[in-house]
Amino acid sequence: MRSVALDFGVRQITLCEVKEQKVIERATVRSIGALEKYLGPNTLPATVAIEACREAWSLHDRLGQWGHQVVLVDTTRVRQLGIGQHGRKTDRIDAERLAMALERGSIPRAHVLAPHRRQLRLQLEVRRALVETRAQYITTIRDLIRANGEQLRGARSEKFLEVLKQAPLSEPTRALMAPLSQTIAVLDEQITQSEAKLLGLCQQEPVIELLTTVPGVSLITAAAFVSVIDQARRFDDAHQVESYLGLVPSENSSGGKRRVGSITKEGNTYLRALLVQASWGILRGRGDDPLTLWGQIVADRRGKRVAVVALARRLSGVLWAMWRDQTVYEPARVGRPSAQGLERQAQSVKFQAQMMAQAARKVRRQYGAP
Question: Is residue 109 one of the residues assigned to a domain?
Fold first, then answer.
């Protein structure tokens, strides 16, 4: 079996093949299609190492169709292979070191998402781009209104144009922001269409609705969690999930002293932000939900910002345990102290039905699902 590594640059792909720790082939191509000369279906089978990147999923599938075995490399651990050290980081050197490590069997592997989970993540990215663009335009319009000495009352993004239309604004101000408001109208329509597609994908994933039984966890947060974690059973415990999402404190124990810093912020940035956003909602919640009470206790001791991050960390573990056990959210289980974390127990059919019904109503309120 051949040992080949690929490194993706801005405008090119660098290939390196080694045998017995010696380079026997180098090449640089401009596109994935041009790799067929070296790794096409008529070439000898190869094990190919690729750093996890946006092109990795499609190339993983194509190389598999061509008869090769693909190893996705964990980019958070490539420095242990010597990549980026001593100020020498080039596509040529990176490809060579990856190929050498591949032949030695010392590649740190990354998880390959299932195809349907890739589609879910990509659709989430489309919605995210549309929503963030709309938010930027709304902020600009509010700034223009203030700059003209006028005011606009607060409104949710979905209702912004309706509030804007009814606002007592001068004609010059309306004329100034007309191009932006017209763009927002288009974005509203596109977001509605994107959410309809996303809802269709979510309905094919029963675990997403199960996760929305947690107070404060929206369909988007649950879908993002599923699209990133992919398989609950690939993690041994909640701490591994928290670490994978970059929600555990960084640590420096050199010199015999243990120093704990801010969270590592590794992993998927968008999911981490969604979990923090959900945690703000949980922390501000009312009632006796154990997550809310726990977060408020931490906030009293350490402040709200620290409490929200700690709550996001705990929330990720709760979501993972629910997925692993295929159980809906049960406050009594979350609030029960246990050295083993969330203990497994059978839930009544009636209780599960009630929680799933609540989750379905929450989704219908947010996205108008049938």
Answer: no
Domain that holds residue 83: 2-104
Structure tokens at 318: 């709760």
* Alpha-carbon distances, residue 213 vs 306, 321, 326, 335, 342 (angstroms): 25, 13, 12, 16, 16
pLDDT tens-place string over residues 3-37: 999 998 888 999 999 999 999 999 999 998 999 99
Ordered DSSP codes for 218-234: -HHHHHHHHHHH--GGG
Query: Two tokens at 279?
Result: 């945690």
Both 161 and 65 in a single domain? no
Does 147 share its domain with 289?
no
* Listed residues 170, 202, 234: the one ending a domain: 202
251 and 346, same domain (yes or no): yes
How far apart are the C-alpha atoms of 279 and 314, rounded to whole Å?
9
Sequence-ordered list of residues with C-beta below 8 angstroms from that of 350, at least 6 positions apart, any chain: none
d(CA 204, CA 187): 26
Same-domain status, 94 and 173: no
Read off the CATH number of the domain in which 35 is found. 3.30.420.40
- The reply to whether 227 and 305 lie within a common domain is yes
pLDDT in tens, 312-364: 999 999 999 999 999 999 887 776 543 344 334 345 555 666 777 777 777 77
Nearest to 309 by CA among 342, 278, 330, 339: 278
Q: Count the helix, strand and coil residues of the chain and give each as a percent rounded to the nearest 5.
A: 60, 10, 30
User: How are beta strands 46-51 and 259-263 bridged, if at all?
Assistant: unpaired
Q: Which amino acid, one-letter code, is at 224? A: A
Biggest alpha carbon–alpha carbon distance for the chain: 77
Quote the tokens at residue 288. Answer: 């006796």
